[in-house]
Amino acid sequence: MKCPFCGDLQDKVVDSREAREGDSVRRRRECFQCHRRFTTYERIDEIPYMVIKKDGRRERFDRSKVLAGLLRACEKRPVPMAKLEALVGEAEQFVADAPNRERRSSEIGELIMSRLRKLDKVAYVRFASVYLDFKDVKEFMGELRHLLRERTRP
Q1: From edge to edge, which strands make up the β-sheet containing 102-104?
Q2: Which of 2, 57, 127, 140 is deepest in the core (most CB within 10 A)?
């Protein structure tokens, strides 16, 4: 396993246990080079979860792609990494729970936006600005006004 801190390939497993959902194994590892610890998850590679894009294309659900989008939205925001990981896990479970193991990207985006809205308003607006693909400043301002109205309600 490649160390995410120094890139070395030598490590040892310090702890191994079943993840909460029971569908993966969580392993704590320690790098021999830098002595830092990191966590890996092992999952059974089954039938892939699919995402139906806006243009009708189908592509595999990619946890790292979802996490990268969330990290961009939450940059310089006080959102704990554990919350983002949980949100990605929730999105993955949402796709897994679909009868045919596929969901529209719009459904996944709505789920993520609804959770981000509760977690951090700035991150929500950042994510929404990319996801909703605002055509102009008016659309963007409309969403901001909607958030402000919600904020002033008791």
Answers
A1: 58-60, 50-52, 102-104
A2: 127
